[in-house]
Design goal:
Blueprint lengths: L1 H14 L7 E2 H8 L3 H13 L11 E2 L3 H11 L8
Antiparallel strand pairs: 1-2
Helix pairs in contact: 1-4
C-alpha cells in the first residue's frame, strides 16, 4: 500500500493541474494500471492522512497543501538550500 501511495502522490504532483493538482480518478486508474478497488483503498488512506482535498470534484482527486508538500518531498527529497 505504501508504494501505491507514493506512486499516486508523485503522479498527482507531476500530472495534475494547479492549484490542487487534480486528476480524474479514472485517468489515474488507467495510466498507473490500478484496479478501481486499489484506487479507492489508496485514496481513502491518503484522504485519512490529510494529503488530498476532502471534496473530490466530479471524480477528480486533488492534493491538499500538505499533500503537495509531501509529494514534492517524494519527487525531490533534498532539503531546501538555506542562505
Amino acid at each position: 500500500m505504501a508504494s501505491l501511495r507514493e506512486h499516486i502522490l508523485k503522479f498527482l504532483i507531476g500530472t495534475g493541474a494547479p492549484p490542487d493538482y487534480a486528476v480524474q480518478a479514472a485517468r489515474i486508474e488507467q495510466e498507473v494500471g490500478m484496479s478501481r478497488d486499489e484506487m479507492r483503498a489508496v485514496h481513502m488512506q491518503i484522504l485519512t492522512e490529510g494529503l488530498v482535498a476532502e471534496r473530490a470534484r466530479m471524480g477528480h482527486i486533488g492534493l491538499s497543501e500538505r499533500g503537495q508538500f509531501v509529494a514534492r518531498q517524494l519527487v525531490d527529497p533534498s532539503p531546501p538550500d538555506e542562505d
